[in-house]
Amino acid sequence: MKTQRNLPILEVYGSHEQMGQQIGETFKEQIIHSLENARVLLADAYESLHLTWEGAQIQARKYIPFAQEAYPQYVDEMLGISEGANVPFDEICVLNTIEAVTSDALHLTKCTSMAVNQKYTKSGNVLVAHNEDWVPEDEPDVFLINARPDDEPPFLAMTYGGLLPNIGMNAAGICQMCDSVYPNDSRIGTPRVIVSRAVLGSTSPSQAIRSMVAPLRAAGYNHLLAHESGELYNIEVSARNFAMIYGGEEGRIAHTNHYLDRRMQAIESDPDEMISTRVRYHRAERLLSENDRHTVASLQGILSDHINLPDSICNHAVVGDPLDREKTICSLVMDLGERKMYACWGNPCQNEFTEYTLKT
Asked: What is the CATH number of the domain that holds 305?
């Protein structure tokens, strides 16, 4: 028997700072809890990272001038979150640069993203699916945001704690899923979370891709980009390089946490550690290919898959080193034609999905 747990959702509107304030005021408890979790994580991993909470704040500050120059509106959102939750701005900066300040030692390699376009869906709509995997302690802090910015398209996105939202879809038909990848050319620059937040403000695929590869970025994600027209891309990004993998013609696309492009593989850090992500990628590819009429339910089924447990698509790897522990804390399927999101709080094998609609 699965549990029905509805994710909290908040409608925000106005300027970027105003939206941040609304998020901070409403989810103050979750933001403070996520900050406590981050402090404990750094303390538990001190022998590996040699990084204190105070040191993390110092490191995080180095990234903010780059973000301020590239995307001041999203720095304003972070300021609003800190003001609304009444927590120090420097601490919100740590949450939004955590991968950078830990030098990617948080080798969390279990996220899975996939999409199918009209060729392979029963409804004729583009469907996108994602399992968000992170430390188990942050699962209580997940929530949804339906935003109506003054200067950008409305969007519906998932986030947790004090992180800027970046996983979701907008009213221009743009959808983004992010998977961590591990390049060896990382540098101080615009943080990945802020770069990916900018994608939700895009009105076309090309604008979204330009945001992903913004100059002077600190590193990069894989951005699985889907558009309501059926255009599908994996944009694999590092600090200084990127690759575009087109999936629109094939009609199916998937990604996990290793680079697929050969040029990007050449700058991958510790590729020998990436065995489980490769197993998961091929499993997702196979399951996508076995159905030529996918539905929301069929993608929910793939997201619940347990082959290679605990390092499976539905992730249960909660035991081990503090830097490696993680689980699926949220599972999403989105119908871009209907502008609907089906969100599951926690592992999809144990919890039901709830339907949400992008409000414009």
From this structure: 3.60.60.10
